[in-house]
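dude i think i finally got it to work??
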Amino acid sequence: MTAAFEKTRTICGYCGVGCTVDVLTRDNRIIGIQPAMDGPANEGALCVKGQFAYDYVHHPDRLRHPMVRNADGVLERATWKQALRKAAAGFLQSAERHGRHAVYGIASGRTPTEADYMMQRFMRAGFGTHFIDNCSRA
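look at this
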């Protein structure tokens, strides 16, 4: 007999539409995503990404901690503090050497809308550039 699954109501994270979805899980693993029939933004419909692109969640190659390159260019595990400091130093070095428009931001379709908003604020307020895009196109 197959173990029962759990259904969790949430919002799809692929774009800013805000489609309501039901995530189906069994043994703490996603086994499917269904559109919520009463979702005000999607009314029971989902794009192909929203419904089927969840395999990255449990992929064995998914990063589970920060990585930074050492002096030899080899990736090594780091703390969040180390990784953020290295990233900040790289951003500043590039902007100082090549100007503010040398820094370009790419927001992810797999992050919440709030994170994408903060990314555009980081680029516009932090570097004074509108060089930002996202990968949320279906």
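The first strand starts at residue 6 and ends at 11.
im so relieved honestly
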